[in-house]
């Protein structure tokens, strides 16, 4: 199994890069794990309390479960990947049956902060996009897809997203094998990554 970690700040385009890679590869040979699925279970808190949480700190992620699931997949076992609800700020009670594949992509803002997880990646990518561009993309996406309003996103950006990005996410760029500039769609980089994967397959 080839495991590729795809990191980068919120809105940089990780999911878009993942979709481009998966679109062109043989059906059924590439699987996906999203770090967002592994936010800690916050069912013990009220919705108001959950909405106040810092979701950009490494402690927000259940890395223990994420590492266990990746180990299980490497052993050839299928896993039940948790499913996340951004409107409820919590895991749902559903899971997504995820089978081991020749190539597993793991994407998320904080995946390179965790040493054990980082060591499991055969290839580490960091998708790099200017912060103003990321904020614009995040605003549009969170308002259209994640039930937020302008004030929610801007307040969170100032209080949490920017400081956490500067403290935890940006410094992990040094661990990347390849940095993917993504201020504009970067199909050249996608082709290079796809060729690397095809060779490994
Ligand atoms: N290179 C790009 N140029 C313009 N918009 C982009 C680009 N990459 C992604 N987007 C858009 O930005 C938003 C956030 O992208 P997404 O892939 O969800 O980022 P991430 O997973 O890193 O948070 C989406 O609406 C997506 O369509
Ligand atoms: N309940 C939540 C949980 C997380 N977020 C934000 O999601 C961002 C990470 O996802 P990307 O697809 O943007 O990489 C992260 O910055 C969290 O702030 C949220 O808004 N609500």
UniProtKB/TrEMBL annotation:
Please give the pathway this protein is involved in.
Answer: Pyrimidine metabolism; CTP biosynthesis via salvage pathway; CTP from cytidine: step 1/3; Pyrimidine metabolism; UMP biosynthesis via salvage pathway; UMP from uridine: step 1/1
Instruction: List, alphabetically, the Pfam families matched.
Output: PRK
Enzyme Commission number(s) from the entry: 2.7.1.48
> What is catalysed by this protein?
cytidine + ATP = CMP + ADP + H(+); uridine + ATP = UMP + ADP + H(+)
Give the UniProt subcellular location, in the record's own words: Cytoplasm
Task: Identify the residues that the record assigns to the Phosphoribulokinase/uridine kinase domain, covering every copy.
Answer: 3-187
**Is Flavoprotein tagged as a keyword?**
no
For molecular function, the Gene Ontology terms on record are: uridine kinase activity
| InterPro entries, sorted | P-loop_NTPase, PRK/URK, Uridine_kinase-like
Top-level division of the source organism's lineage: Bacteria
UniProt keywords, alphabetically: ATP-binding, Cytoplasm, Kinase, Nucleotide-binding, Transferase
Q: Does the keyword Chloroplast apply?
A: no
Q: Which family does it belong to?
A: Belongs to the uridine kinase family.
Give the protein's recorded name: Uridine kinase
Q: Which organism is it from?
A: Mariniflexile ostreae
Q: What is the lineage of its organism?
A: Bacteria, Pseudomonadati, Bacteroidota, Flavobacteriia, Flavobacteriales
């Amino acid at each position: 199994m080839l495991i590729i970690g795809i990191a980068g700040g919120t809105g940089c385009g990780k999911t878009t890069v993942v979709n481009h890679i998966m679109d062109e590869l043989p059906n059924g040979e590439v699987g996906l794990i999203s770090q967002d699925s592994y936010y800690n279970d916050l069912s013990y808190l009220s919705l108001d309390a959950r909405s106040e949480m810092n979701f950009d700190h490494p402690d927000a992620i259940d890395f223990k479960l994420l590492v266990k699931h990746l180990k299980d997949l490497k052993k050839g076992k299928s896993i039940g990947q948790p499913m996340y609800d951004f409107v409820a700020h919590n895991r749902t009670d559903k899971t997504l049956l995820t089978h081991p594949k020749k190539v597993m992509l793991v994407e998320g803002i904080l995946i390179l902060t965790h040493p054990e997880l980082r060591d499991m990646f055969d290839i580490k990518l960091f998708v790099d996009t200017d912060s103003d561009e990321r904020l614009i993309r995040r605003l549009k996406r969170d308002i259209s897809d994640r039930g937020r309003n302008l004030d929610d996103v801007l307040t969170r950006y100032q209080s949490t997203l920017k400081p956490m990005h500067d403290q935890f996410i940006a410094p992990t760029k040094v661990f990347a094998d390849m940095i993917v500039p993504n201020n504009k769609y970067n199909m050249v980089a996608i082709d290079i990554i796809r060729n690397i994967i095809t060779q490994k397959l």
